[in-house]
Amino acid sequence: DAGVIQSPRHEVTEMGQEVTLRCKPISGHDYLFWYRQTMMRGLELLIYFNNNVPIDDSGMPEDRFSAKMPNASFSTLKIQPSEPRDSAVYFCASTLKREGRSRETQYFGPGTRLLVL
Amino acid sequence: LAKTTQPISMDSYEGQEVNITCSHNNIATNDYITWYQQFPSQGPRFIIQGYKTKVTNEVASLFIPADRKSSTLSLPRVSLSDTAVYYCLVGDGSSASKIIFGSGTRLSIRP
């Protein structure tokens, strides 16, 4: 398996522009997570999906952020309008939750490094 | 979710054994302990997971005392490539697999 795929790997944009980050989870995984990582705040969970349904979006910083998962193999995280403080590395991760198993491990993508000027 | 505390940074030399301890005083009965490793410019990667006593795999060992209020990740004979940030996480698998990463321990290995 190719692992979790994210695109683009790098994004530079100007304040006020719309940014769309993309993620393809590992085939067969039923959970998908979006994280943001900065030096100041570390790795923060933004939102996660189960079977394409958003379960918890309490980590989404504000209404400028939105995430969708139209099918099991694709998710997007959109920032509109973007601001300089959104500059960070955004990770997507996926996992398969199996009944009766202990905590499942998450598989992370390589991340998208976003710079908002 | 149980809060974890680990050292901010550690230094060691190639060939040494490195032990990173994590405190989780409020760990619940159903909670497991999981460690991740993150290299620069990469996403975190699962290393090891355990519930009690000792767990060993090809990468590391995890020691968990009887009270489970702490755990120690042991990396045998480290090399320069083990330089990374190591995260300790605590939680159960009965909920929706939500994971909260702390600040992690930045491990630096020197020649």
What does this structure look like?
The complex is a heterodimer of chains A (117) and B (111). Chain A has 117 residues and is mainly beta. Helix content of chain A is 0%, strand content 53%. Chain B has 111 residues and is mainly beta. Chain B has one domain (9-110): Immunoglobulin-like (Sandwich), CATH 2.60.40.10. Chain B is built from no helices and 9 strands. Chain B has strands at residues 9-13, 18-23, 32-38, 45-50, 53-56, 61-64, 70-75, 84-91, 105-110. In chain B, the strands form 2 sheets. A 5-stranded mixed beta sheet of chain B has the order 1-9-8-3-4, with no helix packed on it. Chain B has a 4-stranded antiparallel beta sheet with strand order 2-7-6-5, with no helix packed on it. In chain B, a hairpin with a 5-residue loop joins strand 6 (61-64) and strand 7. Chain B is globular. Classes of the chains: A mainly beta (117), B mainly beta (111). The A-B interface holds A 4, 31, 33, 35, 42-45, 48, 50, 55-56, 91, 93, 95, 97, 101-111 and B 32, 34, 41-46, 49, 51, 87, 91-93, 96-104.
Overall shape of chain A: globular
Helix count of chain A equals: 0
- What's the total count of β strands of chain B? 9
Overall, the morphology of chain B is globular
Assembly state of the chains shown = heterodimer
Q: What topology emerges from the helices and strands here?
A:
The complex is a heterodimer of chains A (117) and B (111).
Chain A: E1 5-7, E2 10-13, E3 19-24, E4 31-38, E5 42-50, E6 53-56, E7 65-71, E8 74-79, E9 88-95, E10 107-108, E11 112-116
Parallel strand pairs in A: 2-11
Antiparallel strand pairs in A: 1-3, 3-8, 4-5, 4-9, 5-6, 7-8, 9-10, 9-11
Chain B: E1 9-13, E2 18-23, E3 32-38, E4 45-50, E5 53-56, E6 61-64, E7 70-75, E8 84-91, E9 105-110
Parallel strand pairs in B: 1-9
Antiparallel strand pairs in B: 2-7, 3-4, 3-8, 5-6, 6-7, 8-9
